[in-house]
Amino acid sequence: MKTEGKGKWNYGLEIIMILLGLLFLSPFYFLLANSVKSFGEILSNAAAWPSEFVWSNYSQAWKLARFSEAFRNSIIITVICVILIALFSAMAAYRMVRADSKFNRILLLLFVAAMVVPFQTIMIPILQVVNFLGVNNSIPGLVMAQLGLSIPMAIFLFHGFIKSVPLEIEEAATVDGCNPLTVFFRIVLPLLKPMLMTIIVLNALGIWNDYLLPSLILQAPELRTIPLATFSFFGQYTKQWDMALPALTLGVAPIVVFYLFMQRYIVEGIAAGSVKG
Amino acid sequence: MRGNKLSGLGQQLFFVGPALLFFTIVMIIPFVMGMYYSFTDWNGVSGNVAWVGFDNFKTIFTNDSDFWSSFWFTVRFTLLGVVLTNVVGFFLAYFLTKALKTRNMLRTIFFMPNVIGGLLLGFIWQFIFIKGFATMGDLTGWSFFNLPWLGDATTGFWAIVIVFVWQSSGYLMVIYIASLNNVSKEVLEAAQIDGASRSQTLRSIIVPLIMPAVTVGLFLAISWSFKMFDLNLSLTKGGPFKSTESVAMNIYNEAFLNNRYGLGTAKALLFFLIVAIITVIQVRITKSKEVEA
């Protein structure tokens, strides 16, 4: 009797949660359905299924928003940033755990404190530094700034993880004649793989989606990333929904696909990161 | 041993050097520069930088009603945003840790808005508030849909809250799921045997046991909503008439539209102090409520 009652209740709950899920998804329905309608049809009924699929919206938006360039830029920037963030942070955190000096302990505190600093507090001087170094309006300039901003969090996560990696393996390798570099790259780095994946995936999302910092550093139209291209396109074609919606879909699609493939790492990473925070 | 040519200092430089270099260039130096600029009248363009002492801070406190109205907007937004995202996130997690067939798929769906950046989400919702809601209003006749969405201060505020909750709850849901999975089955069974009702179990056992997750959830939600910029920019641009302008946007406009870098950095420094104080207080309070099973 009791289990039966329980099963019935869950059945009701299941339906409620599915309805809620559909409500959560409804904005995507509006986006997708209207992105292939003619302008007139969007105005007459935004909720209906398209009566005719106007695929040319997409090819036109792709060309007008210069999306091929934007895709290329976004991918180059994200890949370079993510690799360097993961590598430099893992190296620093490894040394900071294994050589527990006063300097390294203060450094860890600085990294943790930096995580609280709002971007607005340092954005204006960052532009000064970027100008001073002559890397304004260039991809290296943006990569440099992203590295500095993302490294504190990554080091913090690696630091917690490396503390749980047993020292004995490294000692054995040293006895066998490995130097510190070989120990790190051949032995420690492979052991960090779960945390590496987490940091790569979370930073990839953050950097791919970032708007404010790239908008300040990259002024040239040919350097625009996807959020920048979308922003400028949306500004030019305000209320011209048959152009704006396909552009938005094109901007959203890569990240959703990435999410569906990398979901496990994203979810595990958030859970792992939050437990330590 | 002979192969080991790297000294301690060499290893420190090799391993920590690159990270420390970028951290110094991008965070430490700008932070110190920001402190300096906030005591100057610099306009961001000219070479003339004059020291003005505390004038910028005097201006902020005595003669900058826009900053304080954006501050009040941000406080209201943070209060509502933090409570709603955490409540929604917790209940999604609570129900999605029960035995449901579609559990994993639903988790995927509820988290999905979070992977899309605030800028694109804001634009998608701009369409929904303007065209989608109008159509829904025609179809259902509900006056809710026919409000002037994004058109005045109140609906603009609620629009940003709605999109923020839709975007952020999924992230907090993941944190609460991880925490709920750690609550031991024995404790829950013991409560059931002692005759505790479902709401009693929730209130007196589950919530106290997941307080560490609450600490993190509140911390994250406060920092997201206090620093909210992208959604603000893409949904309302702070309008109409600056009525939905967040502090982050006010600082941005001060520096890049009004060209008052000195004043902008002074506000930014004040902003940092406020964020730091609030987060420290919040973490202290919720940490003191954490218990062990």
From TrEMBL, chain A:
Major location (coarse): membrane
Organism: Paenibacillus typhae
Coiled coil: none
Record localization: Cell membrane
Family according to the record: Belongs to the binding-protein-dependent transport system permease family.
PROSITE patterns for this protein: ABC_TM1
Membrane topology listed for this record: Multi-pass membrane protein
Record domain ABC transmembrane type-1: where: 71-262
Descriptive protein name: Carbohydrate ABC transporter membrane protein 2, CUT1 family
One Gene Ontology cellular component annotation held by this UniProt entry: plasma membrane
Record's keyword terms, sorted: Cell membrane, Membrane, Transmembrane, Transmembrane helix, Transport
Pfam family, one: BPD_transp_1
Any single GO BP term: transmembrane transport
Gene3D superfamilies: MetI-like
Transmembrane segments: 12-32, 74-94, 106-127, 139-162, 183-208, 243-261
From TrEMBL, chain B:
Keywords: Cell membrane, Membrane, Transmembrane, Transmembrane helix, Transport
Bilayer-crossing regions: 12-37, 71-97, 109-136, 156-178, 205-226, 261-281
Entry-linked PROSITE patterns: ABC_TM1 (PS50928)
Entry-linked InterPro entries: ABC_transporter_permease, MetI-like, MetI-like_sf
Record Pfam families: BPD_transp_1 (PF00528)
GO biological process terms, semicolon-separated: transmembrane transport
Family: Belongs to the binding-protein-dependent transport system permease family.
Membrane topology value: Multi-pass membrane protein
Protein name as it appears in the record: Carbohydrate ABC transporter membrane protein 1, CUT1 family
Subcellular location: Cell membrane
The ABC transmembrane type-1 domain, residue ranges: 71-282
Residues of the signal peptide: none
GO cellular component: plasma membrane
